């Protein structure tokens, strides 16, 4: 049977009291102007025996405004697009990039169903996937599949919560942020349970308080202090300028930029000095020669606070097109600060665990502070078919003339000697 847990996070006790009501079977919740975070978790047991002890993680985060909201204190860091993470030694279908800590498949869009990468022994027909408005964090082990869905409940919207007949156990936590700092988060609110009867009646709602140490932190007070731009003109070697002049160094902390580069862009590891670089790094191959064998690369750069950091990317030659002389390439960047702590408690809390993803590149007691997320657009010059044909003809003529000239010079030289 399926276990279900729903968590709703309001900003204050006043907002919670104003927007939460209940009857004998339902909790009735109202949203707010900036959006109330809703996390719903399903834990589904796997059937039969499985010899494969590997685990996997699948995440989805769209580029639309509803799924691009600021990270709340009950959310992990999720990269944009679809990301499928597997153990390094696990077998997997699809085009994966291998790193020392996992294998990853990244897609900017939902080009295939997320269920294509989930075990086939679990019936997920009860799920109503909401790709346009929700983000997902899915973990698979030998025994269970855990699906976590994040959404926002906005003003003039309501949410009615009750127990579904499909669920063996149902509980809901309605919280508000009591206090928060970089070391501890305190949530207070209600924990509600439903009876195991045919009427699905609410059993009780009891006051509760949760203390935990965050593994991820969204530094709202630093918003606007990190400026990320592309140097203009862009050309074939785009330069990303990351302005950290308003930030200073902090004890036990370092600044970083992380990106999952598409095949059209790459980092020259001999020119730049990335901390980590995995995936397609071939310097000479055009995009249409590599896109069928890889999705791109993952790169992590160390940044220096107090100055503007310059990161040079390189673009591949693009397939000529009929009507445009530029390819428009999306580029997602995450600017963050990683800080070592003395506590192993950041590994787990009631809402998420650190498993695969960006956090795998750091020690288990590292807290990641998001400073800025940027979705840039990189224009890359490319030939049109009209120009492409002209270039081919011109090149062929130049080669022919060069051969004729060399042949003439050789013939003339031979004639003089004779």
TrEMBL record:
Pathway: Glycolipid biosynthesis; glycosylphosphatidylinositol-anchor biosynthesis
Residues spanning the membrane: 391-412
GO biological process, one term: protein processing
Keyword Transmembrane attached: yes
GO terms under cellular component: endoplasmic reticulum membrane; glycosylphosphatidylinositol-mannosyltransferase I complex
Keyword set includes Endoplasmic reticulum: yes
Compartments where located: Endoplasmic reticulum membrane
GO molecular function terms listed in the Swiss-Prot or TrEMBL record: mannosyltransferase activity
InterPro entries on file: Pbn1, PIG-X/PBN1
Family from the record: Belongs to the PIGX family.
Cited function: Required for proper folding and/or the stability of a subset of proteins in the endoplasmic reticulum. Component of glycosylphosphatidylinositol-mannosyltransferase 1 which transfers the first of the 4 mannoses in the GPI-anchor precursors during GPI-anchor biosynthesis. Probably acts by stabilizing the mannosyltransferase GPI14.
Annotated protein name in UniProt: Protein PBN1
Organism ancestry: Eukaryota, Fungi, Dikarya, Ascomycota, Saccharomycotina
Encoding gene, per UniProt annotation: KAFR0D00230
